[in-house]
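Model: You mentioned two targets. I'll fold them one after the other.
Researcher: Yes, keep them separate.
Model: Target one:
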Amino acid sequence: MANYSIFTLARNALRRHRDWPQAWRSPKPRPSYDAIIVGGGGHGLATAYYLAKRYGMHDIAVLEKGWIGGGNTGRNTTIVRSNYLNPESAAIYDHALKLWEGLSQELNFNVMFSPRGVINLAHDPGEERELMRRIYANQLAGVDAEWVTPTQLAELCPILNLDPNIRYPVVGGTLQRRAGVARHDAVAWGYARGADKQGVDIIQNCEVTGFDIQAGRIEGMRTSLGDIRAPLVGVVAAGHSSVLAAMAGIRLPLESHPLQALVSEPIKPVMPTVIMSNKVHAYMSQSDKGELVIGAGIDGYTSYAQRGSLPVIEETIRAVVELFPITSRLKMMRQWAGIVDICPDASPIISDTPIGGLYFNCGWGTGGFKATPGSGHLFAHTLAKREPHPINAPFALERFYSGALVAEHGAAAVAH
């Protein structure tokens, strides 16, 4: 990238890495803005970026209670895919995947998107039928998807255990070749830098404490840094969306759960793709640093604890060792949990609310990271136009009254 060339690195090395320019400003909040985005994660920053660049709204504040990249954006397993079952879901996630494919160029910042393919394993005839159904649905929706046999799996991932005598033998799987992984914090940094260049104020350590609502319309926000006025507010607060909605007198159909993951010590490249298994409840990829990134499911209890629980990790490791026997002697380096908001139909909410000028983007459950650019792009349209984009129209709050749910429990997989 032009701004981060080898010459720039060498020049700053000679200066002992002093006087590096800030990637984005740290301004104090002004008394009022044309719009406020609550949440400085990937989705919120992407929303602000597209509002400024695509719709010419530059008088925007992004309010983040912590630091950029310190929330769920930095607490996931970085998987990017769009092979969901329902056409509405396939459309919104494939919209995001198309943006992923050019995001480093768009932001002039390397987000390290790596389309190495994502494989979903089948362990019995029932799973095979369900995955074949998803393949046909994806192909009808214009999303790439194909079936791979055990012989092909052995070529795609030589360390996968294909012994027919294991507890859950592998009978095949689906492959989306365009899918892959990206660098989670780089996505937040890239959007933050891009939004800042468009004049957006990114205000960190600014916790929302309440909403200023007058005559059924949003007038502004109450924060730990004082009141800030704005006639348009978009809330993109990931795991804490229901808490913020309650401050505004809105009850959202969400449950918050810790979603766990861990990484191993770094080893030489052995994992050229991403493999997921519903049956044994685990999925794995390898980072550019050599760590094996291992994902688990959600904790069954409702919680905001970001540390997760040992029983879930133990069960996940048992599953991973069965699928990938070479991992049995690896050391676990660290583990963490992100907080996910889950809707009853395992699909997101991108919607206006009964309060004029107040919008929510939430409920992505375990699919939030992969949706980042598409979510921000579509939410920006919804805020700027005061109406939903056709792609996100099916994900309005109204569906919980009308019954037009977008059920994605199966294609959401282990934790995606």
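Model: Target two:
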Amino acid sequence: MTRSISILGATGSVGASTLDLIRSERETWRVVALTANCSTEELAKLAMEFEAEIAVVGDESCLGGLRDALAGSGIEAAGGAQALRDAAARPVDLTVAAIVGCAGLAPTMAAIEQGGTIALANKEALVSAGDVMTAAVARHGATLLPVDSEHNAIFQCLQGNAVEDVRWITLTASGGPFRTWTREKLDTATPGQAVAHPNWDMGAKISVDSATMMNKGLEFIEAYYLFPVGLDRLRIIVHPQSIIHSMVEYRDGSTLAQLGPSDMKVPIASCLAWPKRMDTPCEPLDLPTIGSLTFETPDETRFPATRLAREVAHAGGGAPAVLNAANEVAVASFLAGHLPFTRIAVVVEETLNRYSPSAPSGLGDVLAVDREAREQALQLMEHA
């Protein structure tokens, strides 16, 4: 039976991996909408290959180029924020929400409001609007499937078990490329070094987040909203091999762990086939060759991001949205060569100290907090 799918963020790493998997079972899927920020040639090529109904660029200034690239194909082209939301609102069996950052929040909410199934790869959306988004999921009868490898691992380990029987949920972190660096050496870290992750092939922003450990902090907050066990039952450990993607310990002492290669095709396939399984091109684990699996306690002196995220999760209200917005601004400044690596977390913490909004009650409130937090972070960097 053919299933319909829309991919928000089709030209990013998650979108590309999703489309690779769809290629292997092309007869199973009907592609409705593909979106990108601007990559018009790539987006048009994908839209024509997969015979999408519509292709959308978030940057409206790129719409002319998209229309030119799709000329004569019969595929609809659209651009701008509202076009993204409209495309996300088209009824489909599965929406892959993979737009990076808070920019993906409104389209993801539009998909949720259709009451469908959303494979969520945009952790920033859930971090910024956790209460608003989970309320919308309940209100519209939508289903969230976690694409992040850690949350997908937890999701799999929880299957067939009661949440009230959970003693601990443990998120594993690779530690990133700077895990063994001294604080003095971290001061000199370059964008090129930060995006060179030792295990995963990811986009620039998420790679920097992995290097600062903010990615794990965001995932800690995301786990709080996805798995209602309470903050006191969530923890983070460093696992440099990235083989165990997360673990769930139950009150009887049993711990279930999900193991797999460091390839996003594995959790994406889990979502595409759910509640069944599908083939992937990933090489099976060779545990004798891997040899050993090691674990460490996070060093929150060198990498304070996980501490900040934990404090923000306890504070609630608008604090998670401030954390995410300030981090996006600081990471962008670092990638542009304007901010030292070790200042990223400092900017985030100073923004949190400066701006404490009340809890957002709707999407508009979340976006307003996001805008103000960005302005505050930019001002901090300008006057540093």
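Researcher: Noted. Anything on target two?
Model: The first strand starts at residue 3 and ends at 8.
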